[in-house]
Amino acid sequence: MEKRLLGRTGLAISPIVFGGNVFGWTIDEKSSFDVLDVFVDLGFDAIDTADVYSAWAPGNRGGESETIIGRWLKARPGMRDKVKIFTKVGSDMGVPGHKGLSEKWILQAVEDSLTRLGIDCIDLYFSHWPDATPYEETLGAYDKLLKTGKIRSIGASNLDATQLGKALDVSKLHGLPAYQVLQPEYNLYDRSRFDGALRDLCIAQGVGVVTYYSLASGFLSGKYRSTEDLGQSARGAGIGKYLDARGLKILAALDLVAARHEAAPAEVALAWLIARSGVSAPIASATRRAHVESFARAAALRLDAEDLAGLEQASAA
């Protein structure tokens, strides 16, 4: 399978990253192991999670996703050498002081994540959300972790162009590690946060990009086409906002391209991201084997100029 360099991290990854937010939420541990096994068997090699996943599920406290990934790695001798592990710090863990990007919390949170994952080094460690902590402090904490080998590289999620630009300036001015990867929300429907200044900055500075909500919470799969469809899954409640004229126009364009290639709409939506200048790889979740097999078809799908033009026209704001 094709490998892509992820910014300046030195990491080469497959063109789709597995989104671990589903572990301990919409699928149990056994099913999580099964889909991860298929993912690796098909040639993929990067898994994204966060310390807070999946605290929102009833009875959860956070750390469930990392724990499941850690148990999977332990049960599969040699697997650690085959995969790259991404995780994040900064979200509210529900305990006083256990949130944000202060040095004190980062240095504690990384140990918690390493323990849950059962590994001694995180390949890519993200700041999950911007906060009021000075960049000098946050990047200084990451400097310590890089020097001690706890992490290999750093990234940031949910920064806008101004915030990322300032962080990169602080790194250069103070000789601190720089964010090498951005994780923005980006898909055929939600384009405004990344397209434009932020995308231009990432391309100019060589910042790798892995997108989240790559399928708009499943909307771009074509599974949800009316309000009556929203009860099909736990994610349905967040999909109603996409059922407007523009969203339905995008689905129609996806259907057209999918029919042309004998593909599924979700495969086309992921292939569009893979082909997009400035995007290293989309993140996508799966709850069963068929979803992961669809990832492989998406990674192999090559959209032509007519396909891209049709999708561009339909998704224009």
From TrEMBL:
<dbReference type="InterPro" id="IPR023210">
    <property type="entry name" value="NADP_OxRdtase_dom"/>
</dbReference>
<dbReference type="GO" id="GO:0005829">
    <property type="term" value="C:cytosol"/>
</dbReference>
<dbReference type="Pfam" id="PF00248">
    <property type="entry name" value="Aldo_ket_red"/>
</dbReference>
<keyword id="KW-0560">Oxidoreductase</keyword>
<dbReference type="InterPro" id="IPR036812">
    <property type="entry name" value="NAD(P)_OxRdtase_dom_sf"/>
</dbReference>
<protein>
    <submittedName>
        <fullName>Alcohol dehydrogenase</fullName>
    </submittedName>
</protein>
<dbReference type="InterPro" id="IPR050523">
    <property type="entry name" value="AKR_Detox_Biosynth"/>
</dbReference>
<dbReference type="GO" id="GO:0016491">
    <property type="term" value="F:oxidoreductase activity"/>
</dbReference>
<feature type="domain" description="NADP-dependent oxidoreductase">
    <location>
        <begin position="15"/>
        <end position="314"/>
    </location>
</feature>
